[in-house]
Amino acid sequence: MSVAMTWPMQQSMKNADDGNDMTICLGLHTFAIAPVWDVARIERHMERLKTIGVGLFEIPLLRPAEIDIAATRDFAERHDMRLVASLGLPDTLDVGARPEEALDFLRPALDVTKAIGSDCLSGVTYATIGKTSGKPPTQTEMDGVCRFLDKAAREAGKRGLKLGIEPCNRYETHLLNTAAQARQCVERVGADNLFIHLDTYHMHIEEQGFARGFADALPYLGYVHLSESNRGVPGQGMVNWPACMAALKQCGYEGAMTLESMNHVDADIAGGLAIWRPVASHPDDVIDKGLPFLVQKAREAGLMVA
Description:
It is a single chain. Helix 5 (139-158) packs across helix 6 (179-189). The protein has a single domain, classed as TIM Barrel. It is of the alpha/beta class. It starts with 21 loop residues before the first strand and ends with a strand. It is globular. The chain has helices at 39-43, 46-52, 69-79, 99-115, 139-158, 179-189, 200-206, 210-217, 241-250, 267-273, 285-300, and strands at 22-29, 54-60, 82-88, 120-124, 162-165, 194-199, 221-226, 256-259, 303-305. It is 39% helix and 16% strand. The relative contact order is 0.18.
């Protein structure tokens, strides 16, 4: 199987010491505005989002059948927006014991991903958010995850899509927690349309540092979530944003970076994410303060927002 790796997967990693600024696409996860993909609700924010520099929306496919494909494609074309689709598997699924059930769930999601004009489906595509065994992953579990991802990547490839895997912190999954573990998984599967999706919230908990985490994901790093330590307003938590942006610059990252805040979360995954109270005292600050803050820190590190 061979799928051309364009955006968001990088074709090569440039030398960050060449002194040149690198252009990055700035994205926003819909949870910053609404718990589901709601074109009418998103539309009201487009003028200020375009002014800030947002060029991508991430759409959660928790229930793929609910996505209005025609309205979504029209929205993306009118605003010249890139789209990324993402999900976590429902807690009724077990990719090791019953992989076909999980594939049956993924196939419609992949179909919707293709139909809306996105070129990738990412997220916790290998497990359920918030589902852990309380023990380290067994060899049997990892064998099952890799077998499943091999089949899932083939399904994505049939549609000309890439498939991302997002390692999460130890409280949300016991299977993949670090960039190094994700890399081992990608290399074991060997599918050329499988990439790593890192999230600063999880990295803040699990990695030795941003530089080490991003480096461990190379050359498979294809997508990055920018999320504060409390899932709220970037710059109002404990994430070391200068170190994060400097690490992205140093490793030559040229994909997209998307603000993910759990400002509004769908009930289907709120429990798995342990979102039981507001993540921001003033919800509008996520966009009005958080996005400009991220753009500023990116530019200070030599990362230019497209």
